[in-house]
Amino acid sequence: MYDLDTHRSMTDDPAQLRKRILDLAAQYFLESSPAGDFIPGVSPVPVSGKVIDGADVSAVVDSALDGWFTNRPIRGNLRTESGTVCRRPFRIAG
Questions:
Q1: What is the CA 58 to chain-centroid distance, rounded?
Q2: Contact residues for 63 (Cβ-Cβ < 8 A; gap 6+)
Q3: Which of 7, 15, 26, 48 is positioned for an S-S bond with 54, CB 3.0–4.6 A?
Q4: What are phi and psi of 8, to 5 degrees?
Q5: In the chain, what percentage of residues exceed pLDDT 90?
Q6: How far apart are CA 23 and CA 18, in angstroms?
Q7: Cα–Cα nearest to 35, from 49, 48, 18, 54
Q8: Phi/psi at 23 (nearest 5 deg)?
Q9: Are 54 and 25 in contact (CB under 8 A)?
Q10: Which stretch, 33-37, 56-60, 76-80, has highest mean pLDDT?
Q11: Which one, of 72, 53, 52, lies nearest residue 62 by Cα?
Q12: What is the pLDDT of residue 61?
């Protein structure tokens, strides 16, 4: 909880607070997203073709809490190994 008078968290554990924020981000996405099955010819299809879920939204919030607003280190070796996988002498810029 957050105390509006003192502008401080009512928990002293940043890890618990972070977990709550991430859980709330995922819950918000779930609650604010249209529910239901895809019905061909009836359901809208996103123009970008993207399919995201609460875990994706939570991951973005997690990155923002770390101060990473572009390429976060969580992407692992994708940048450096992409040239090998694609059998090209180049890689994804970062």
A1: 4
A2: 69, 72, 74
A3: 26
A4: -130, 155
A5: 28
A6: 9
A7: 54
A8: -65, -40
A9: yes
A10: 56-60
A11: 72
A12: 93
Non-local CB neighbours of 20 within 8 Å, separated by 6+ positions: none
The pLDDT score that the predictor gives to residue 22 is 96
Query: What DSSP designation does 70 have?
Result: S
Among all chains, which residue has been given the structure tokens 């939570």? 58
For residue 53, the SS3 value is coil
Q: Indicate the average pLDDT of the chain.
A: 77
User: How many helices, marked H, and strands, marked E, lie in the chain?
Assistant: 3, 2
Q: Is 26 helix (H, G, I), strand (E, B) or coil?
A: helix
Residue of higher predicted confidence among 13 and 24? 24
Average pLDDT over residues 32-51: 78
